[in-house]
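Response to reviewer comment R2.3. The reviewers asked that we include at least one raw input/output pair. We reproduce the pair for DUF5359 family protein here without editing.
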Amino acid sequence: MKRFERILIQLALVHFILLVAAQFLLEIPSFKLYTNKSIYYEGVIRTTNSPLWKP
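Raw output as returned:
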């Protein structure tokens, strides 16, 4: 059981490190430009240039 708990703790630490790294990367403006384009492809944000946008 101790081995299983140790693996869970290690996984939680790795998950936390990856979470902090992802949050740090999202604060970099040049990186944010590439990641935010996916929002437009998914249709979450509609711009005025979109043919589906109706005021």
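The CA atoms of residues 43 and 54 lie 14 Å apart. The chain is about 70% helix and 0% strand. Further pairs are available on request from the corresponding author.
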